[in-house]
Amino acid sequence: MKRKSLSSFYVSLGLLFTAVILKAVESAKGKYAHMLFNELFEDYSNALRPVEDTDKVLNVTLQITLSQIKDMDERNQILSAYLWIRQSWYDAYLKWDKDKYDGLDSIRIPSNLVWRPDIVLYNKADDDFSEPVNTNVVLRYDGKITWDAPAITKSSCVVDVSYFPFDSQQCNLTFGSWTYNGNQVDIINSLDSGDLSDFVEDVEWEIHGMPAVKNVITYGCCSEPYPDVTFTLILKRKSSFYIFNLLLPCILISFLAPLGFYLPADSGEKVSLGVTVLLALTVFQLMVAEIMPPSENVPLIGKYYIATMTMITASTALTIIVMNLHHCGSEAKPVPQWARVVILDYMSKIFFVYDVGENCTSPKREKEEERRFEGDDGCQRRHKEVRNDDCNLREKLNGNLHGVQSENVRETVNCCSCYKMLIKNIEYIANCIRDHKANRAKGIEWKKVAKVMDRFFMWIFFVMVFFMSALIIGKAA
Questions:
Q1: Domains observed in the chain
Q2: Of the four, 87, 101, 364, 462, which is 20 to 30 A from 72 by CA?
Q3: Helix, coil or strand: residue 117
Q4: Where in the cell is it found (predicted)?
């Protein structure tokens, strides 16, 4: 037990001694850091380029790390991104011998104490022109200064929404010096592309790359070259949200439009269904218009909405025309011969359209028609019998005028006149019934024409809706 207690005592004593030594070293380095800082900045000025020869170019290495995409405003064409901007250069007046300062090789100091390159975002679209974040810089003994500064940038981006919501965008971030030309400050790419290792995945956009290109441009105002580095952010939109909230409802609603032709004409809901579908698509069109910029490039989904609305407008107009054909009554002209052949004979068989009130499983209509024809023949037979009786009556009257008395003759003549009036009334009623049946048959024919045209337009518009839906999906792919 005594040996264990002694060993633990020695271990504790060793740890305490080590902590005292480290603290002494840190305090010694802190002492040298203060002394180094006072000596370096005694005669230092951060207003001038830190080069010993004014004709020498100062190279600034630039590296951009994309951390997050905050917002893509398509309507105003502004990209908001969270960046980490790293700049490094060599200051000829901030060097020291680290052996003289107990091996101190680097210090952290506020960035406003040293000279900084005025590298800005050329295509900035923010109203805030404040100074960069005043973070510390890392100063090494060989004069190398590294400045890491976070920044939330708003840059202008030309947005092409022709294939929205299946579009890809390319947004440029151009960095360059605002006052120094290429003979004074030159910008060098640290990497061939932006750093995406710390990118936070966005819910709306996929990042497919961020290549960097150095450009040297000579502007019209000046003869000196001005270098810049352009980072091209390649974005691909995640379209699942827009498919389920904008495109799929439109496709489902558009398939309701052809069903308006399948509704019975007597229901009174054919036109109201088309108008309701048209209003629903108008609401979706307004939602898309609020998102998209007011440009000449109509998005793909907007074209689909416009085509569908045009189709529904045409279907509603055709429905009104077909309903007028359906309600043609006795005052209308008979169905033309070409319409009888094309529509009633051929198209009705192709689209399985039968007479009004008839279907393919109930042949009751034919039996009723046969009974009506039989009834008409019976009435005609009765009418002929009455006429034959009348003729026989006349013969008897002519034969008996010489052999009977005058009273019997009068009675016979009166009876004959009654039969004549009865025959005239029956003929009048039969003619009225015949005309009524003809007018009714004319209306039935027009109703059948309207029904055939309804079925024809229904299949035509179904094919159009399917074709437009397949076209938009094909363009998206």
A1: 30-237 (2.70.170.10), 239-351+426-476 (no CATH)
A2: 87
A3: coil
A4: Synaptic cell membrane
